[in-house]
Fold each of these.
Amino acid sequence: MSPEPYFPVEPWCVREPSVELDRLGHTESIFALANGHLGLRGNLDEGEPYALPGTYLNSFYELRPLPYAEAGYGYPESGQTIVNVTNGKVMRLLVDDEPFDPRYGELCAHERVLDLRSGTLSRSVDWVSPAGQRVRIRTVRLVSFTQRSIAAIRYEVEPIDEPARLILQSELVANEDQPSIGDDPRVAAVLASPLQAEEHHHSVHSALLVHVTRRSGLRIAAGMDHVIESTERIAVTTESHPDWARTTITCEMRPGQVLRVVKFLGYGWSSQRSRPALRDQVHAALAAARFTGWDGLVAAQREYLDRFWDNADVHIDGDPELQQAARFALFHVLQSGARAERRPIAAKGLTGTGYDGHTFWDSEMFALPVLTYTLPAAAGEVLRWRHATVDLARERAQVLGLRGAAFPWRTIRGHECSGYWPASTAAFHVSVGVADATLRYYHATGDEAFMREAGVELLVETARLWRSLGHHDRHGRFHLDGVTGPDEYSALGDDNVYTNLMAARNLAAAASLAPRYPEVMARLGVDDEEAATWRDAAATMYVPFDDDLGVHPQHESFTRYQEFDFAAIDPEDYPLLLHVPYFQLYRTQVVKQADLVLAMHWRGDGFTAEQKARNFAYYEARTVRDSSLSAATQAVVAAEVGHLDLAHDYLAEAALVDLRDVHRNTRDGIHIGAAAGTWLALVAGFGGLRDHDGRLAFAPRLPSRIDRIEFSIRWRGLRLRVTVSPDEATYTLRDGGTDVQLELTHHGEAIVVRVGQPVSRPIPPLPPAGPTPHQPPGRAPLRRA
Amino acid sequence: MSPEPYFPVEPWCVREPSVELDRLGHTESIFALANGHLGLRGNLDEGEPYALPGTYLNSFYELRPLPYAEAGYGYPESGQTIVNVTNGKVMRLLVDDEPFDPRYGELCAHERVLDLRSGTLSRSVDWVSPAGQRVRIRTVRLVSFTQRSIAAIRYEVEPIDEPARLILQSELVANEDQPSIGDDPRVAAVLASPLQAEEHHHSVHSALLVHVTRRSGLRIAAGMDHVIESTERIAVTTESHPDWARTTITCEMRPGQVLRVVKFLGYGWSSQRSRPALRDQVHAALAAARFTGWDGLVAAQREYLDRFWDNADVHIDGDPELQQAARFALFHVLQSGARAERRPIAAKGLTGTGYDGHTFWDSEMFALPVLTYTLPAAAGEVLRWRHATVDLARERAQVLGLRGAAFPWRTIRGHECSGYWPASTAAFHVSVGVADATLRYYHATGDEAFMREAGVELLVETARLWRSLGHHDRHGRFHLDGVTGPDEYSALGDDNVYTNLMAARNLAAAASLAPRYPEVMARLGVDDEEAATWRDAAATMYVPFDDDLGVHPQHESFTRYQEFDFAAIDPEDYPLLLHVPYFQLYRTQVVKQADLVLAMHWRGDGFTAEQKARNFAYYEARTVRDSSLSAATQAVVAAEVGHLDLAHDYLAEAALVDLRDVHRNTRDGIHIGAAAGTWLALVAGFGGLRDHDGRLAFAPRLPSRIDRIEFSIRWRGLRLRVTVSPDEATYTLRDGGTDVQLELTHHGEAIVVRVGQPVSRPIPPLPPAGPTPHQPPGRAPLRRA
């Protein structure tokens, strides 16, 4: 859990001073660029070597069969897998006929820099070919936040010592070879060559390929265009074929002369639009990009990010590595959702093929809270995507014998794509996540149009789900039996505390909204009697408690289960799911990821302070953090119960999960949930932000090694900046008129903040922390203090 | 649940007066012949039409991949599937060059008779060819109980009105076309042509084929030989090829002349023996059969069955259809295990490919109790097979993080072959079944050699399993959490009452045997401390009880769960598992098959009479009997709690499950568990046999429509015959010397029975029956009274 740092610490950059080829999988993900619509892995410009070549379009997927050794009613028959689409990153250089390849010749220098403020990936190479010809190469790559279909690459090459003949081959390549995926030959067959060529065109310096997927029937057009600068004579030719196109640029340069090529890449896809429409759409996008030009794209990118960071940055004094990691994490959250526009945020964003490119519950419970408070429009778009799938969720509920909408555990397009129902179908909390994110977005923005068009329906259909999923026992308590909570080392428990408390909030909110949206309620067929059943279910929701131990069981009986035998586990046996059968994990007291502790974060209003302290210590001793989602939540609650340095440790673990490749799987893509959790750990942890029922509350408090943090949140068109020092917190309101005021609480004290009138309050002394928490052997986080 | 009768009622035969070709799947199973080693489906002699051609050798299987949409640690990678081996049943007849085929020409008569006393399948056909040539065909088929590698067919044909040229083609055919199995093309590919030819031979009237399976590497030799009787000139030729061999017999017959051919079939297989060894083995078996001759085989078959029925028959007065069905059922139980000889009893015996030919827990809990009391040596052989797999079961336990032996949910060779662990791996009760059958066999036979060589180890390793599977809670109660009981509509429950009570018996028995087998215990590494932990776990085993309702929950919390909404279920939606997701079945109060009620049968000593009555009524209302294993157990307990006519109804349902094709799947093979349950329902139900801790107890009592039953059980070399009339029961002891006596109880009264001194006792009046049971809507059994 404590791999060594790899990247030097810098506040606004991630720099790789020299390339390590056996680490390409890691760096391809770290250096991935995306805008929520289009994503390019940080593959080397020349295409190889690579760990995983990757170009992704949000929601562009192929269907694949889901096989079962023993079938069952309601099992999904096919899954959806993100497709590596036409690769336009490839720019091969030949120097006097020798291909530039970092594996050959002498690599005198090779640096890559991801700049979090400019939103570009730069590369600087100094290479001597096997024949002794030395060249300097500089490339800059961006995926535009302002022109969402566009990526661009500026490629510069110059000879150093001698004149050289330079040939640059700029390509579009469909159906690239991919490393083997899994052991099912049928799946491999489907995904090995997913794109069927439909048409291809080229001009002298541009080309365009159109393909369609075999089974899902999605059409994609990818085009490239080039602007070439050179003082010398240049020959340019382009050819196109069904699966590839190539622009070849040939020239001879002397030392000091630079060949500079800007490559614009345009992408478009659709499940409905015709070939001509899509072809024209990409052509138009390329024309616009060319019109804007390289410098214009770079400037717009910078401007977009300046605005973003002004809203979203968390400034940290005292832990520079954490500062860098927090910004890197937030940058990737932005990249995953900025321009998703009614498409989901996948668990790996658009940075890799991990989890088949699926979106999970952490979209709503990790990424969306961050976006809601930093880039609210993007959060709204993702929720509108969820709403666009509500018919599928209603169908799924019906298959399951339930009412309302049961959102899928994992999906791209909205259909359930999981082949193991105890960990998926039964994990109904994905639907409380949808409801909670909807409420949060509504409270933070007051977006009534959203509520009328999407939000109310999401809350109503999820409330209906809980009402039909649960039932009253003979004593009138409402139960949700046989469900799987967030912790994936338990399954099919009765009365999972997280699910029950969150569902109760969902039910109560839906009922309380009924009088405010009579037209929507009428359209959805909600009457007063139905709303009353929601109020009743919320009021009588059962929450188990272990009186002997004075802690909440994660679900009924959990604390009565056998203790997991940690002593029998080798340090190499983590993650446990690869070495212990589900059978044993489910029936013993071992926790993969925060579950009861997650409930204490998002439904902290359902616990006393003493319960929180005791619960936290209890679950600390049983939580192994085999999920990257866990550490951030543990940080939030550790901070609340007074274990501030432990919170700092967990925060750092979440923040560094990809930079340090903590789980050794960053090659599959960036952990967007953990990245978002980093912001949450800072803002909800050390900032103490809570937003129960739409009321802003802060309880800021710093750990010993952090001197100051400063963060902002957006709230109904305002920006609230919170500056926290060891002794004091200052609340500053921006953007509103002088008559605007914001009510919030600081450590329980109600205060009012007005624009231009910062309010400072002392940090109260730390009350006695609860029991000292201990982690399972070997599972303590790396100490930072 | 109440299909019409198909076969006329006769006491010792199952007769099909005329063939219904769309019912071939059903009759192929009904008329299957087997001896526990070799099984032939009741396919028509001429090979087609067929529903499923089938020739099976016990434990001859092929491996097939088990695919998973999402893999998990400990999932079995490959399954085992029974193989349709070389078919020697085929005897094609041509009459004046026209093939005899029931689909062509005119079928004037076609009768098939399974004779339960002679152990033969006879067929009598009167057919007019499309050209108008009339012939009579009579065939008799047997699978020898006395020569286990041998089957034989006598084929007789005679022209009726005109002379005819008759050509009989007698064949061996490997890799027959099979109907499609499932929707996984890879599995179909593996099993479409499972046998690789190794060698083939022939003489004038015999042939032999040797094959080996591709993946499992099992070798099979199949041979045929013929004895031909005819008064006229006959031409005989034989040819052989890698996948088939054919003996052609040609003659011309006049009316009144009969061509009579006896075909001997010999089979042998091995995972180890060489090609020559196997070839010679089959040749020797055929030589022996030819030496015995057709008449000798028929006579030996009859003698074997006379002895069996003398031990095993249950005579029933008052319900002739039930009498027939009970004998038919018992005959198929015999066929499944008579000569298994250290091989398992599959759920479908050797009558079809249902469940891939796997053996399940019902082998030990249904088939073995019957065999233990009727053919104890056969029961011992099956238990020795289990013992032969104990190393695999130990390995499986280790993979699961447990000690002892975890026997597989479904297997042929001993490896776990299930692809859905919540219903398989977690169903640890398969191991209590092994232990219970071991104890029963030991008590009934006193077979000390078996105990030393196998039985003690089975009891010790299962006791170790329970000890490591369970744990004490903070109050000292011992729990088995997260296990699946017999009811497949629940899974992963805590403290399944059946499993807990049976495991407690297992633990206590293992502990109590320790002092009696010190050498075995030393070899197994059992010391006094370990045995003490078993005693303790047995003594503190937790059994949940619902005080409010005064009933036992099937597992913890079951009676608190939501009631299943039977009103929402269409009668066509049974079995529910095909129309309702597991998710809903597991978390609601719906029961596929007796589970708590099964506990009340086999661990009736763990319940009071009042509890039994209340429990029975409670579970009756929630049990849908989607498993054929359920009705028999419900009959046993219904009889005990005084609902005798209901017991009669359930008994009939179990007995008729295949004759009437109640579950519409008899085409896949005979339900051996239900067949065995028929005997149990009679003997443990109306006879009231209980054998807790090796003490014989009877509590006979008849339902209103049955006038008398008479059954026998074997007990330590003795035979006890029990004759029950409405008012009186008589116990008669046979086989022992006059000094031998047997202690038992009759309705709780201890009595002693001596050879030659029958004891009669009155049946006490029926105490008030408990609450009147009601079944879910539409799920009441067909009434017989």
Amino acid sequence: MKQPTAEAITHLRKRIHIIIEGTDTRLGKLFDIVLLIAILASVAVVMLDSVLYMRLQYGTLFFYAEWFFTILFTIEYLLRLFSAPNRLRYIFSFFGIVDLLSVLPSYLSLVFVGVQYLLVVRILRILRVFRVLKLKAYMQQAGFLASALRTSQQKITVFFLSLVLLVTIFGSVIYVVEGPENGFTSIPLSIYWAIVTMTTVGYGDMSPKTPIGQAIASMVMITGYSIIAVPTGIFTSELARNMRPQLQPITCPNCGKFGHAVNATFCDRCGHSLHV
Amino acid sequence: MKQPTAEAITHLRKRIHIIIEGTDTRLGKLFDIVLLIAILASVAVVMLDSVLYMRLQYGTLFFYAEWFFTILFTIEYLLRLFSAPNRLRYIFSFFGIVDLLSVLPSYLSLVFVGVQYLLVVRILRILRVFRVLKLKAYMQQAGFLASALRTSQQKITVFFLSLVLLVTIFGSVIYVVEGPENGFTSIPLSIYWAIVTMTTVGYGDMSPKTPIGQAIASMVMITGYSIIAVPTGIFTSELARNMRPQLQPITCPNCGKFGHAVNATFCDRCGHSLHV
Amino acid sequence: MKQPTAEAITHLRKRIHIIIEGTDTRLGKLFDIVLLIAILASVAVVMLDSVLYMRLQYGTLFFYAEWFFTILFTIEYLLRLFSAPNRLRYIFSFFGIVDLLSVLPSYLSLVFVGVQYLLVVRILRILRVFRVLKLKAYMQQAGFLASALRTSQQKITVFFLSLVLLVTIFGSVIYVVEGPENGFTSIPLSIYWAIVTMTTVGYGDMSPKTPIGQAIASMVMITGYSIIAVPTGIFTSELARNMRPQLQPITCPNCGKFGHAVNATFCDRCGHSLHV
Amino acid sequence: MKQPTAEAITHLRKRIHIIIEGTDTRLGKLFDIVLLIAILASVAVVMLDSVLYMRLQYGTLFFYAEWFFTILFTIEYLLRLFSAPNRLRYIFSFFGIVDLLSVLPSYLSLVFVGVQYLLVVRILRILRVFRVLKLKAYMQQAGFLASALRTSQQKITVFFLSLVLLVTIFGSVIYVVEGPENGFTSIPLSIYWAIVTMTTVGYGDMSPKTPIGQAIASMVMITGYSIIAVPTGIFTSELARNMRPQLQPITCPNCGKFGHAVNATFCDRCGHSLHV
């Protein structure tokens, strides 16, 4: 076979890239749908494989199916790598790492006997669904949510820091008050109890038995119950602010100020008329 | 008996329709109240019939009562069908299906021995209460709520998709870390645990025993505890936006002010009439 | 003793009324503080009396203390009745009923042997604290909260109606799917489970064991987890609306329209200048 | 050694104060980082010391480490005391008390055999992290949150008072209905159950068994589930209000428009200068 020219390779790379990344061509759309079905099917196989009754019945089928999908996704990964404009950037991008982790465990299982760990990672393939679907309206709305999260990230950090301090102090206090004889066998475990209680999950595997312990637990519960208001308030006010009527995106012809009130006719910085 | 003329049938249909659907006439109001009492009574019968102590004592009474209500609602269904302007549209409407499912189980129980399934469906009859009551103010307020839900439906879908991904990943990780010996017998069951934990319900039938598992569980709990802020923020900002006073998007022909109150007829800046 | 004149009685009534209801006089303030201490003390006695260890040790002391407080509050009730401007209105007012229920159980215990019932009602005396304290700023803020609740009461009713329907349907479905052998022994009990789960309390005394049941439970949990957004959104948007900048409280001299936009100089209904 | 002059002491005090409190100098920054690492390390030692397996293995190491940190923090406390401009004010400030409580338990353990109590207090040292980090943007955001909490403190107090009344009444009622034979052994314990249920934590260690008790429990759950809306609404509306752009309360001398943007120098309606 004649050696392919650099031109032919570049041309092939572009064509594959259009099929994989693009959704406008018929082949691109077909690729996306097949990929989506393959992801969902492979995840279903992993989940069913963990059910003992199912593994006993269909274990061999699952084994071959898992390797089929692994080979399929490996080929897909190599194609993406081959056709990517910037290979290093792809390898270290979020989806690049997800795609690699989606096939690596199967190969690792040939060396290590920790099959379960492999199963976990294949579930991550489901994250490709977001990129494959590419629904414009949904991605715009997701953008609104992400934007609100970004602008409030400092308030959120302050909140989380306070949470960490609260559960540490509450956990230590309940450890001292209740002690190992009531189930609180160490401070780390008591901090775990404080998290379970403050998030109002309340498993019940550990609960205070002494009156003082129950009084402290009441404080933990009411604190957790009330401060749910904080992240909600932060997020809601940011989202509402993003949705409020925006400034007129015009520039004052005189002083250059950008952005004026909705009903302004004169620039409030220099007094010049906004509409010449 | 003389064969009824087409005119007579149409006239009868209209009269029955007015009684069933309308609430203005005395007969219409009486029909609605009788129907409401019948629905509530039949649902109460079904509920009491499921209590063993009650069934032993009043089983026969319940049996006859259930068939009485079934016959009653069957006649009502046939009357609605007969008087409906568009029969196909009624059969496939939400209430048409509910009305059919409210009587079908009783007849099915003659063939199949799954009496309990029938009981479930009769409970749905309670949904007729909404249509029967027809309280204008309440329906308007319900409309506000429904409207806020509709306009935020894309953000809500993004949120739910994220929830599904989170519980799938968390469930798989905890399955690998804890394993069947600690109660996490399969990935689907572990995903169930992740939902129980992330929604902060926390039954306690399954809870992590290893330190790493408890650390992961802590992440699940704090995630679930915090992201309640998202649907709340979405819904609150949409509802607040709907409740803000809207401006008429018109310009004053005299002074050029854009945006006037909903029921304004004069410009509140210069006094000129808005409608020349 | 000379028979008291009508004038003397009226004068006495007024004086007692000032002491009891008013907080301006020194005697009135003293009365309030003594009453507050008496309420809290009597409630503490009732609570301690229910602890077995305490009752064995101090039972007699509690018995005498309870009767002391009952006599005290009976005298207070009679004084209020005597000095009230409108006796019938007081008897049937909220606090009138609370005051009566705060002493009645003790007398009833002489006839009936349900002492515990009596204990419950004495706890209600603590509601007098609100009226006794009379802190102006707090009552104004409480007024804001109550006002927001009132204006959103129709939306709240729609929400509660939906909750009732949801738990009824979910409860019936889980009863059919899980059945008595899994703990779901009747439809009412299953509805109780649905409430426990949808409010995310999750005791764990009843939890689904079948996969279908767990799938349905997941729907219940995610529904309950998400629709917390609804009452929160309703209440938050009402409260925010109450706090928004208000209209100018002026009347148009020409057409009489009350309430104009913050920066309006002309009436937007008739065009007349607002500032003559 | 020559006796140090008052001047030398003052100079030393100032130098130490700059190192301890200031973060601009290199020595100051180094001090902060070393302190932060020491705090986190000492807290980790306390936590690990409570784990039995760890204490058996490394008990001696922990003992020496704890005394090392205690000596270190004692020296730090004395240095702060020595260099503080106002010593009394430091001793009784929040951090002054925390710093003292962070070393006192170790010395108390020489007298009393309640070692666990000491462990609790050392955890509080972690609160120094906030002061040490001094991140401007985060402290500003924290200020926003704290400000919203302050302005809504009266509404929050009304809310908490209502919570206390609700759990007291609910707890007493459930005690009467269920009784000691169903786990509700006293009114205080039943109030604890009411708090566990109303905050939706739901341990499951106590749950109602009688139908009436379950009906009452349902009311408690739905109440707790719904009134989460109140603190959330309070906090969200205050935070949103703080974030709304404020207007300058001045009038344009030319056209009379009231209310201009914060940094406006000209009227945006007529163009005239706002400051004559």
Amino acid sequence: MTSTSPESAAAAGETNDPIHIRRLDLSDHETGFVALLSQLSACPDLTASEFATRFAELAAQGDDHVILVAEDTTAREQRIRATGCLFVERKFLRGGGKVGHVEDVVVDAASRGRGLGLRIVRRLVEIARDAGCYKIILDCTPELRAYYAKCGFVEKGVQMAVYF
Amino acid sequence: MTSTSPESAAAAGETNDPIHIRRLDLSDHETGFVALLSQLSACPDLTASEFATRFAELAAQGDDHVILVAEDTTAREQRIRATGCLFVERKFLRGGGKVGHVEDVVVDAASRGRGLGLRIVRRLVEIARDAGCYKIILDCTPELRAYYAKCGFVEKGVQMAVYF
């Protein structure tokens, strides 16, 4: 057998996949991460110092707070094309159980339709399961039900909010 | 004027309100807190050591993780009648904004209809606002929409979940 399946090629690191999914890094202040978030919500730019402070606060949570980013390694400039966040909530119920919360999933408008968001969300689901969470949850608009169903999510309730 | 309004009596600490709302304490392993949570979700009892470990993990989060309990000071035994949790999520968006998440609100079946849950949720909303959160959110069943509307919550989206 000389043929190579895509899986074995990927396992051997021989994949040509131009998308690299990794954890957010301090250097991502320069790769458009905050600008990408502005496609989801109001998001004024942060100074390098402000970014570093928040990064350090979240990094202190270790694997209880994971931000993944998808980087296009073929782009001339290092740019983030998609992101998603998982944080782990520790509870007293369920025998001291843990719940994964998915937040701030966004794909750059010019990079949609390539499955980047789904790849990130699926990875976050794996991380939550491997961390021993008994469930992973997220809130979304009704139009996104089918999108998240592709990652195994089912509708469970309603999200309520107070804005200050 | 010799009459005393309920407000001024409360301000002077002269209230006869038998309900004391306070933060969860390590000693609440003995006051029925875990048993109360079992009215909300599967909740096997925790040993004193397991309870202390989880308590310490959450206490390390300081004011970013607050569990309130309502204690009936007139009961023969010290018992928790209601509880609710708030944790603060720190984000990069909204200028490094913060979001309050309400979790695990439960009122003892024998103490419902006294407004204990509403008092706890309203207090959690105040804490989130005072902490500088730009919003506070929670997930609930559709039947509880009107309940949380009494605390100012409006429906914003759908909750999706994967159970492992």
Amino acid sequence: RRGKMAKSTQLIDNEVFRAYATYTAIVLLKMMLMSLITAYFRITRKAFANPEDTASFGKGESAKKFLRTDPDVERVRRGHLNDLENIVPFAGIGLLYALSGPELSTALLHFRIFAGARILHTFAYLIPLPQPGRGLSWAVGYAVTLSMAYRVLTAAWLL
Amino acid sequence: RRGKMAKSTQLIDNEVFRAYATYTAIVLLKMMLMSLITAYFRITRKAFANPEDTASFGKGESAKKFLRTDPDVERVRRGHLNDLENIVPFAGIGLLYALSGPELSTALLHFRIFAGARILHTFAYLIPLPQPGRGLSWAVGYAVTLSMAYRVLTAAWLL
Amino acid sequence: RRGKMAKSTQLIDNEVFRAYATYTAIVLLKMMLMSLITAYFRITRKAFANPEDTASFGKGESAKKFLRTDPDVERVRRGHLNDLENIVPFAGIGLLYALSGPELSTALLHFRIFAGARILHTFAYLIPLPQPGRGLSWAVGYAVTLSMAYRVLTAAWLL
């Protein structure tokens, strides 16, 4: 079956596409990790959003006090939303970029810088590092996506 | 034209890709449904986020009181954000997975379990069901995406 | 290399796919613009979410007062989240739609209306325009995505 698939699409046999697949899987997994970190802080800080999540702490007032926001939880959630806002455009524009026939070395440069910047961004957000650490790592990832979008629009332009 | 398209890509003629397209469309439509449910609760609970949305209730103080948060609205919004956090990685990693040449039966197993888990998750969130109903349905969808990511990284690895 | 890529996938040489790539890049760039607008309002309104972002305003109480929500910032953030909720399904379902072999003219009609509706939606949210301006522009984009999803499910259905 692998042979048939490869014959009909061959996308996965293309080196640029393989690099895209590798880095996109990595940054999407990194984004998914934010869910686990949120859960970790919700449990250790005892700060939940839904009444049914506090049922194990007893009923009534004793459970109600755990329905609250916590600064650490909110920080992870902001990092998660920032990932959505930045990794989604990377994944979408990156796919189009990978299919536009760039040089492998150029594509790898884009993907590596983006993945590195987003991993740095997560550390900068969660530690947290003093600014402009988080701002710069955000800007680098943003610039990589803009660069890929420029290539996509140049190669594909059909309005 | 359909013939020309099929000849140049043939993706849509690949059974694994057709299964991916079907399930991805279904879970994205399910995610879009959350917008309508949010609108339904905003209107029935009279709880809006923007001043211009309350203009039909009159001007000044009489309208201002509808600029508020409502527990039911916030619950749907949390479910919607959870969909974004989980269905986006599924759609992205699932596409790469579908292009990595898996067995149709294995791919269908992944897609069916994910779609079922996310539909259950929505019911668990909106009814709401007691925990660990929501937690388990979330974890099952998460595990399916991890399993597909493992296959993608094994098949495509190019760092 | 471009020639080799084109031979192995040819996706970028397909006119419908080129149109999809163009419009998806445009709406994703528009979504990314919301980050810059949020930053602009955070800086001009002096309203930040993270303590480390206010360090340049001094230490202690003098900086703490800038850790606050601002109506203009929150409005842009709601617009940004609405983009995520609507542009993500468009990008995902639109890719499947583009690969399902639609007529170029029909595809262009879908993409153009969606992009126009989302650009209008942003203006309606940020100015803000009185309702139902924002509601209608949202509904038009939503309907376009539903129409593409119908086509995808008809062409690909494999459950």
